Amino acid sequence: MTAWIVDLGVALLLLTGSFFLLVGSFGLAKLPDMMRRLHAPTKATTLGIGALLIASMAYFTFSLGLPSFHELLITVFLFITAPVTAHMVAKAYLLRDPDLRPHLPDVQANGGWATLGRSPQDTQRGGP
């Protein structure tokens, strides 16, 4: 592969990654509430970091002749953990604010599905 094609591809990946990082950072700073702020870094910034890491991997592999798989592992780890982390933060936010939490039915006598309330059996036994 000629050097200018590799350099062009790396430059395009760097520009794309930088653009998404800028958009994600701007969204994190300017969006009005926590749930909207959570969306910016989990979507745009993850794509931006992914593009930068792939650009680094392509540069070291094609330009210098050194295969580099560390960046690929970091990218895969990032794409797996970012949505899980965002989901956990969103669930914690919803559970922390009672106004945002949907009305839950009362806990049934058999313990039911809920973990936020006390079952009638616990109330009779004086449990937690």
Keyword list:
128 residues; mainly alpha; 4 helices
Q: Which SSEs are present, and which pair or pack?
A:
Elements: H1 3-30, H2 34-63, H3 70-96, H4 120-125
Helix pairs in contact: 1-2, 2-3
Describe this structure as you would to a colleague.
This protein is mainly α and about 130 residues long. Helix content is about 70%, strand content about 0%. Helix 1 runs antiparallel to helix 2 (about 35-65) and helix 2 (about 35-65) runs antiparallel to helix 3. The chain is elongated, with a radius of gyration of 23 Å. The model has no long low-confidence stretch (mean pLDDT about 80).
Q: Give start-end ranges of low-pLDDT stretches.
A: none
Number of beta-strand segments: 0
CA(first)-CA(last) distance: 68 Å
* Amount of beta strand: under 5%
H and E string: HHHH
The 3D shape can be described as elongated
Report the biggest beta sheet as strand number plus sense, adding barrel if it closes.
none
Structural class: mainly alpha
Short description:
The chain contains four helices and no strands.
